[in-house]
Structure formats: structure tokens, C-alpha cells
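Researcher: We're teaching a course module on how sequence relates to structure. For the next exercise, students receive a sequence and then see the predicted structure as C-alpha cells, so they can try to spot secondary structure elements on their own. Here is the exercise chain.
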Amino acid sequence: MSNDSPQLADSQWVRIYDTTLRDGTQGEGISLTARDKLRIAQRLDHFGVSFIEGGWPGSNPKDAEFFERARDITWNNATIAAFGSTRRAKAAPDADPSIQALVTSGARVCTIFGKTWTLHVKEVLRISLDENLQIIEDTCSYLRSEGRRVIYDAEHFFDGYSADPEYAVATLEAARRGGAEVLVMCDTNGGNLPWVVEQTVRAVHERLGDASLGIHAHDDTGCAVANSLAAVRAGARHVQGTVNGYGERCGNANLTVIIPNCELKLDLRCVPEGRLVEISELSAFVAEVANAAPDHQMPYVGRSAFAHKAGVHVAALRRNIESYQHVDPEVVGNSMRVVVSELSGRGNVLSKAEELGVHVAPEVAIEAVQEIKEAEARGLSYESAEASVSLLLMRRAPDYERLFDIIDYAVTVAQRRSSDTFVEAVVKVRVGEQVLHTAADGNGPVSALDAALRKALAPVYPAIQDIHLDDYKVRILDSRDGTEAITRVLIDTRNERRSWSTVGASANIIEASMQALVDGIEFGLLDAGTRTRDALDGSVFATPPSGPPPSIPNALTEQPR
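Model: And here is the predicted structure for the students to work with:
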């Protein structure tokens, strides 16, 4: 179903105008190639937004390339829009290069911004108020005569309305006379609050009757989403914003929050039926293409949006899933997670075990909670190290047999006469009845330890060849203790199918690293199917996958919620 479905009245639709490719790229650290823009635009089109603003034609080569290539693409849901300014004060529209760039872009919709605030008209443009109204009307009228649909962005509208309500509304009326189909009220400085926005939009809605109104909000007070929703409550049915809230200064209104709020809280349709479930994936996709770190605490789509850490919360969730969740996370393509930490109760451990596929008896869960609290008091943190949590639970099974044990290890860091640094690690490992003793060098102590451990275990567990250290992070927990401070090490490990994280903590950074390394390798071997150790001609070997991973006996009869 397209987002022009006749099954819903216009009043039930909020037309989403995505400006990630233009306004979003004005955010610090956000830069997109023309190819990046096309990839994001196609994903947005599939998701079902109504408009995609591709950029400002004529302002830079990337935007020109985008519009040129966009002409050859079939857009199923969205209409491509080109952004620009009203004509210059002393130039006719057909002689203004900026206006001509809009026409030649090939975009069916042209979105132009004009001055609303008398301060800008008098002191920035330095023209008369009447001349500004004529510029707005002329520009809209010319673009309409060229066969373009026009959306008018009233820049600084709320500040202008506060200074002179009559003139601010007059600018909208000028755009409407020129043929603009949507009149967008912009909180350009992002300084207004929701009740001001709602009162203003409602007053304009009553004044202009059947005019189609829109909202464009910036987040300088942290209220861009709230201001957009306030405008919708007051009658706006066109909302502009960006995926993940990217944008200049503090960002734009975040569409990945606005869209679920409109659909789930206000019972208004923003995208075709069945597409809301894709919004978490959309958020992650745009962040990946933009090379931006995802905000894990973003509402609805963040990794932590439905993560539960407090023991009281988790205990309640296990009885009724709605007790601490305002919506079903699956509706927005997300999932519930339970975080294990020193704040955990038995319910956290039981829920995490179910999530990880490890069966835990209630009495074992109580013991595990105590172990976790004691470990976190020593500096470990299990929130981002689920593989370490899984191993902690599995190792409590009476029949669990560790795949290997570290007997001892040593690391040597020295400098040769050539001034080259020399790093060597020696490890002694017990596997069953065998003791394996080997050494390896590396670029640093952790690299050398990793290499030595792998060298020792490779003949016994060939699957270790497919396990790779992916990332290594160090955090000093209390720098006031100087070199005696506890160091926490988080290691990310991966194979061809997945990645996992493990943690270690100690006042000795090498010891902390070794803890995380050992967990990472053991978890990877278990994941690869290493289940048992059997003696064969005095050697130890790993069996292929056959059956479920090690589990704690006395499995819960209660099903995961």
C-alpha cells in the first residue's frame, strides 16, 4: 500500500518530509557522497516517507550529481524534492541562477525558504516588508508555472510570529497565493517550547482555514520532537526532520522518534502499513552509511531502548511484560534485553540465561547473582560482555569441564640495541592431561599473549584458527590511584558468523587482558561446536557440533517471556 492510500483520510496521514540528505549533512561529522545519498534515499523510499529532500542544486557538485542520478531511478513511495531560496531582491526568477538550478534539477517538488521575521527582512535582506512578500509570491508562482510542486519553508517563523503575528501570517499567505501546496513553519533557531509551538500553529490553522501546514524543528532546547508533535496536535500534517536527528548545531527533529510516536501514540499514519517494523533497521543503516556512532539510548530504535538493568524492573517484567515497557519492541523492529550487573536480581540472571540459551536453576541463579556482584565490585562490568556472562553461568554446571586452563604465563618487553622493541609471551596451558608450553612474539603484550595462546591450542582445537580478536578497549576505573588503579579490559572477538565481547579487570593490565582473552577464546570454541574432550593416543581433540551447548541442569519450566 502506498502512502497515498485512499483508505485513510488526509487528516489521518502525517506526510513525512525527510531532509537527512540536506539538513542532516549540516551536522558536524556528517558527510555523504552522492552514492551514499542515493543509497539512503532508496532505503527511505522503501520505508515509505512521502518526500526526500536531496539537497540544494547548484550549491555543490555532490548535490548536482545526486539529482542527475535520481532522475534515472523509479521512486515507489517518495517524491524527490530540491531545496533552495526565494529569488534575490533585484533579480527576476527566470534570471536567478539559484531558481534556475531548482528547475533544471528535475525534481518534481521544489522547497524554498523565505524570510518571515521582520528583523531578517529589515536588517539582513535590507528591503521593505512589502517587497519581501512580493519575492515570496513571485518565486512560488514562477516555479508553479514551470510545472513544479512547491513547498514553502517559512524561516524563523515562530520568532517572526512572536515579533509581528500579522506579518508572519502574511508571508504564508503570499506563498499560498503563489501556489505553494504546503506552508511549513520553521523553528530555525530551535529556541521555542512545545506550548508556544502548539498555540502558534493552532492560531495559524484557524486563521488560514484549509491551508496545509507543516513543521520544521531544530533541537536547540532538546524539544524538536516535542515541538513537532505539538504542531501535529494543533493541525500540522506535514513534518520535516532527519533520521537519527542529524543536523546543524544540536540537530533536527528526529524522525525515528516522531514516526513511532505519531503511529503508536497519536494513531496517525506516517508510512505504509507494515513498514514501522523496519525503523530500527533504517536507523542503523543510515548511521552506518554516515559512519556515525549509533546512539544506543535513542527512543524506540536504540539498543538500550528496551534494555532492563534494575532487578526490581526485571522481576516485574517476568510476571507481566507490560509492567516496564510502554510498547512492544518488536513493533519497531527492536527487542528487549536484560542487562546483568551489580544491580541485578535473580530475575536478571534467569532472563539473561533464557536470552543466551543457557538453562539455569533458580538456586544457581541466586549464586550467580552474588558472584556477579562481587566481580563488579572488583571492577568487572558485564553489561557489554555477554559472552563472559554466558560462560559464568555455564561454568556453574557440575558437569561443565573447561576446555583449557592457564597454568602460568609471562610477558617480556625489551629493547634491542637496534632500538626496536621486542615483545614475547610464554604460556603454559593444561588441556585434559596434557600440558602445552609455547611462546610467541607480537606487536605488544596483548598481541603476544593472544598469539602464544593460539599457538598452544591450535593443534588441539583447530577451530581456533577461525577466531579473531576484533577490538581491544581499556578503561582506567579510578585514575586518582595512578598506576595502582583497576584497569578494565573489554575484548571483542569474532568468527565468520558472529562477534562477542568478554571482560577482565585487575590492577595489572596484563592480567585483565588475559582474563578477557581466555573467555573470548573459550566462548568462540564452544560456539564453533567444541563440546567434549576425549583422549586419543595421548592427544586431546575437539568433537564437531552435536547437540546443544553445555547447560546448567534443572532447567526452568517457565517459558521465556
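Model: If you want an answer key for the exercise: The chain has 17 helices and 18 strands. Confidence is low (pLDDT under 50) at residues 1-6, 532-561.
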